[in-house]
Amino acid sequence: MNGVHDMGGMHGMGPIRHEPNEPTFHEPWEGRVYALSRVLRTRGGIWNLDASRHGLEVLPPIDYLRMSYYERWLAWLLKTVVAAGDVTPAEIESGSPAIGSPRKSALVTAEAVPSMVDRRASARRDVAVTPRFKPGARVRARNLHPTGHTRIPRYVRAKHGVVVLDRGVFLFPDTNAHLLGEKPQHVYSVRFAARELWGEQASPRDFVHLDMWDDSLEPV
Amino acid sequence: MLESRESSRLGLPAQQDHVSQAIPSDVTLRVKALESLLVDKGLVDRAALDRIVDTFETKIGPRNGARVVARAWIDRDYMKRLLTDASTAIEELGFHRYQGEDIVALENTPKIHNLVVCTLCSCYPWPLLGLPPVWYKSAPYRSRAVIDPRGVLKEFGLDIAPDVEVRVWDSTAEIRYIVLPERPAGSEHLNEDALAALVTRDAMIGTAKVTFDVRKESA
């Protein structure tokens, strides 16, 4: 979707605020939100990584810009626990389980945390798919504007680049985010000249590399 | 809280957040209520949450990445493995966690400077650098790193010569990038631990270089 999350190339966002000795979490609630997300996301489905990214993208733009990073996660969590059927809006309102609601078993126990953190959860898929492009191929990023999730930033659409490397086969977030299947396909490292993306103002020596799926590219 | 909310606009760090508050903020209460509800439902184990927070506050952070960089600096074969298959190379040092499954190391040289960003969200090599700092996830960095990398680097105090190629890596897929900074001049005699101590998080994102002050050492 052409959302406000797709920020590459925007102006007017102000200076970068570098904070010396920044803590992992600025307030305890941020850590709780992060941990809750990690636990709930172990279930996949509407909690899968791509769906959760999309859950942040669909926040109203004005809220997305106003909220801090973990405030966005909290908004997404509150929406998704209801959508998943884990809790009802009334239970969120009252803060306690409705009388007679079934007790569930813990998704992740404390003992299971180290293995959850160490878990190899690659989006790489071990399936044979024929690559459409070879390293060295001239390509164009497709000029697509899907209303759903996509990982093709606006600034690269319809721009010409060169395939540098084939990274292998990965699931496709554009379908996986909407539970429409993994659609595994090759991902390439594609190199775009800064001048192709931004015109004469850019340095002729600069390049931007993006990882792009087969479905996001077309031959030139 | 209103004040810190205001300063959180555009994802900027909220300096006021550090002021201790007698009355819990609205967001603190909302998170507590959600956590209690999910614990009461049985879905969430509170001790598991404690352990996750502790892991990311005390065990996983840029010191991990610094160890990888220091090893690469002292061991040419390791550096080769790191640059060709970083996921396997970091596993040799015991790092193979979530969001580190497909790591690529980018070598800075006198002619190439690499810079990592995620314009769409906040992708970052968690096992090697921990969770990203606020500025990395914020609108000013995400918007400008791709269109004005030299301006961004200047804001970080780095002047990149016009004849040096700047390569920006936008983390659009599940590949996670770590920059292998140049080993600083004068550090030839340092051992692996001393080298690791020089490597900063920002140097592994590409917004800093690793420096070594010979005079300071002899002082």
Give the key terms.
A: alpha+beta, Cyclin A, domain 1, SH3 type barrels, 2 domains, five-stranded antiparallel beta sheet, 5 strands, 15% strand, B: 219 residues, mainly alpha, Nitrile Hydratase, Chain A, two-stranded parallel ribbon, 4 strands, 10% strand, disordered N terminus
Question: How does this model look, in words?
Answer:
The complex is a heterodimer of chains A (about 220) and B (about 220). By secondary structure, chain A is of the alpha+beta class. Chain A has 2 domains: about 30-120, Orthogonal Bundle (Cyclin A, domain 1); about 140-220, SH3 type barrels (Roll), CATH 2.30.30. Helix content of chain A is about 30%, strand content about 15%. Chain A contains 8 helices and 5 strands, in the order H-H-H-H-H-H-E-E-H-E-H-E-E. Chain A has a 5-stranded antiparallel sheet. In chain A, helix 1 (about 30-40) packs parallel to helix 4 (about 70-85). By secondary structure, chain B is mainly α. Chain B folds into 2 domains: about 25-60, no CATH class; about 60-220, Nitrile hydratase alpha /Thiocyanate hydrolase gamma (Nitrile Hydratase, Chain A, Alpha-Beta Complex), CATH 3.90.330. Chain B is built from 13 helices and 4 strands. In chain B, the strands form 2 sheets. Chain B has a two-stranded parallel ribbon. Chain B has a two-stranded parallel ribbon with strand order 2-3. The model of chain B is unreliable at about 1-20 (pLDDT under 50). At the A-B interface, helix 1, helix 4, helix 6, helix 8 and strand 4 of A face helix 2, helix 3, helix 8, helix 9 and helix 10 of B.
